[in-house]
Amino acid sequence: DGYLRNDFHIGHVLSMKGRFEDALKILESTQTKQIEIFDKSHPEVLQTTNVIGRCLAEKRLFDKAHDTLLQTLEDGLQELDKGHPIILSIRINLAHCMFGMKKIEEAMDHLTEVEEISLQRFGDYHSIYREAVEMKEQHEQKRKQKEEGVDVSPVTERMQSAKLE
Predict the structure, then answer these.
(1) For the chain, what percentages of helix, strand and coil (3-state, to nearest 5) are there?
(2) How far is CA 150 from the centre of its chain?
(3) Which residue numbers in the chain have pLDDT < 70?
(4) N or C: which end of the chain has fewer CB within 10 A?
C-alpha cells in the first residue's frame, strides 16, 4: 500500500509538471494494482482515477476523460458525501473536461455547486474553492474577450459608424 501511494504521488507530480504521458503510464498501472486491493469507490482509487481523467483532458482526449470522470464521480458518491474533497475535485476536473467539449452550461453548473459546497464546508481559503472560482473567472474572461473581439473588429466598427451616419 505504501508503494502504491508513492507511485500515485509520482504520477501526480508528473501530471502537475505537464508530463501527462508519463503520468498516465504510472497512474494507470497504480490504478490496476489498487483495484486488486480496494474497491473502485475507495478514496485512493478515486484519487488516482481523478488524476487520470485530468491527464486525459489535458491531452485533449475529452470524451475518454469525460467518461472516466463521470464513472469516477458515480463510484465515489456510493461511498463519499457530495461535499467530500475528492468528490469536489472530481467535479472540478469534470468541468475542465466539459469546457473542452464546449458543454459550457454544464461545466459552470458543476463549478457553481463546488464553489457553494466548498465555501460552506471549508471557507474561502480552501484550494478547492479557489480552484472553482478561478476556473469560472477564467472562462468568463475568455467569453468576454471573444465577445469584445467580435465587437471591435473593423467590419463591425464600419457597420456601426455607417448606421450612425
Answers:
(1) 85, 0, 15
(2) 28
(3) 1-3, 150-165
(4) C
H-helix or E-strand containing 82? none
As for how many domains the chain has, the answer is 1
Tell me how far apart the alpha carbons of residues 128 and 125 are, in angstroms, rounded to a whole number: 9
**pLDDT reported for residue 142:** 86
The Cβ of residue 82 has, within 10 Å, a number of other Cβ atoms equal to 13
Cβ neighbours, 10 Å, residue 164: 6
User: What is the domain-level CATH number for residue 107?
Assistant: 1.25.40.10
Residue 8 domain-assigned (yes or no) = yes
pLDDT in the model for residue 150: 58
Q: pTM here? A: 0.82
> Is residue 5 a part of any domain in this protein?
yes
Element containing residue 60 per DSSP (H, E): none
Confidence (pLDDT) at 97: 94
Domain that holds residue 99: 1-135
Q: Are 80 and 43 in contact (CB under 8 A)?
A: yes
State the distance between the two ends of the chain, measured CA to CA, in whole angstroms.
Answer: 75
Cell numbers describing residue 13: 507530480
